[in-house]
Structures are given as C-alpha cells and as structure tokens.
Amino acid sequence: MNQKENATFIGFGNMGSAIVDAVYKKKCFNKITVIEPDSSKTSNLKSLSILTDKKISEEINKSKYVWICVKPQLFKKVSLDLKSFLGKDQILISIMAGITKNQIVEQTNHLKVVRIMPNTPAQISKGISVWNTTNNVNSDERIIIEKALNSFGKSILVDKEEIINLSTALSGSGPGFFYRILESFIIAGEKSGLDRNISKKLAIETFIGSAELLNSSSSTPEELRIAVTSPGGTTEAGLNYLEKININDIISQTIAEAVNRGNELSEESNN
C-alpha cells in the first residue's frame, strides 16, 4: 500500500464529512481514516471500509495527507497531539479559517503545509476552494491535492496566502450571506401576500436559475441586470431602492466584517 495515497481526516463536522464523502466516492486516496471523538458522527463509516479513531496516535504516520478539519479554536490542542506523531514527509492540509500556514508550522513543528478554504456547497460537489501551499510541497503532491479538491467542486491555487484570507469572507462565508438574503426574499414574498411555500419555491428557483444563466452566459452580471430592467418598470423601481440604501456599501461592509473576524481568529491562535 502506497503511503502517498493514504489520508487521515481530523474532525468530522459538516465540512469534514462532506470532503470525506467526496474523496471516498472519487477514490482519491487508497485508504481513509477519520479521527473524531464523537463516535456517533462516524458510526456509518464502518460499512464503507473507512477506518475511525477517537484520538490522534502513531497510526497517523500511515497517511501521507493529514487533513485538519476542526474549528480554529481547537487547533492548539490538535497541534500538541500532532507534534508527537508526524513524520517529515507528511503533508498537513488545513481547512481552518484564519489560521495561517506559518502558525501551523510554528505550532506543529512541521514544514509541509497546505491551507485550503472550501465552502459548504462541497456537500453536493458544487463547492469552490481556494488554496495555497508551502514551497516544499512538490508538483506531484499538488496534483493529488488538487484532484481531492476537485472531487467536491472546483479549486483555485493562489500564489499569495493573503488571497485566502480575503476569499474566506467572500466564498467561505458567502453561502451564509446568500442564505440570509434568500430568507429576506421569502419573507418579502409572504408580506406581499404569497403563501410561504410558493414564496420559498419562487425565491429559490429564481436564485438558481439566475446563477445558472450567468454561469452559462458570456454576459457580465451588470449586462444581465440591464437586460432585465425595463425603463419605468417594476425591476427598475426595486433596483432604485437598492441604490438608495447603498447596497454596495452594505455588502462591502458585510465582507469586511468577515475579513476582520478572520484576522481576529489568527491573532487568538497566537495567544
């Protein structure tokens, strides 16, 4: 069994489980192990021939790729456990928001690190991941990592880690912002007199259809907006109000707040 084809995942929450499900189905790794203290989360994995454990041990040495899929606040404890068992040729792959590659290197005494920011549509293989690596991760290793990332969506390899911090706010937190806006659409439909189920269906399908149209078109969002806006019509009236309340500033400040929180998480990890 080739070590470079084995992977261990530390943490099995929403994102960790989505990634494991995708890489398992796409056969990205020869053997998969999941380390999760809560055995109720991993009870269904035995039937899939996925190994499970409740804590980090020397068994982690059998995996070339070690994915850290825990909340940033738990990293200190995880890093202490990792220090004892990691081999120099293993690669740490982190999906933790706000924790930099340098912080991972310093807290684990390990030099080969990949930082990834995925998002929750990975649960249906429609995610987008932005990633960056330390220079000592070679091209063959990057190919294997990219294959894993593309098993649950699309990926963008960036040469500057700062881009990940900014991307975290836009694509990592973006689904949450999207759902909140969608909630408002549904509520607005109800207030206008629509049944809730009808309002929900109309809102969801409108968002999906608009996104798919944009994705399949060579037109920009601005061009598509102009095309659907008749002078003096209903769309123009609604858009005029969005401009009146300065929608660009509202969205920009929303993203800025998420960026700031990411920076705070990074600082908290140093303390």
Describe the structure in your own words:
By secondary structure, the protein is an alpha/beta fold. It has two domains: 3-158, NAD(P)-binding Rossmann-like Domain (Rossmann fold, 3-Layer(aba) Sandwich), CATH 3.40.50; 174-265, Orthogonal Bundle (ProC C-terminal domain-like fold), CATH 1.10.3730.10. Helices cover 51% and strands 14% of the residues.
What is the CA–CA distance across the termini?
40 Å
Coarse shape: elongated
Compute the number of structural domains: 2
Percent of residues in β-strands: 5-15%
Number of helices: 11
Low-confidence stretches: none
Largest sheet: 8 strands, mixed
> Can you identify the CATH superfamily of the largest domain?
NAD(P)-binding Rossmann-like Domain
Order of helices and strands: EHEHEEHEHEEHEHHHHHH
Radius of gyration based on Cα positions:
21 Å
Total beta strands:
8
Level-2 CATH architecture of the largest domain:
3-Layer(aba) Sandwich
CATH classification class of the largest domain: Alpha Beta
Give the integer mean of the pLDDT values: 94
The main sheet orders its strands as: 3-2-1-4-5-6-7-8
* Fraction in helix: 40-55%
CATH topology of the largest domain, anyone? Rossmann fold
Structural class: alpha/beta
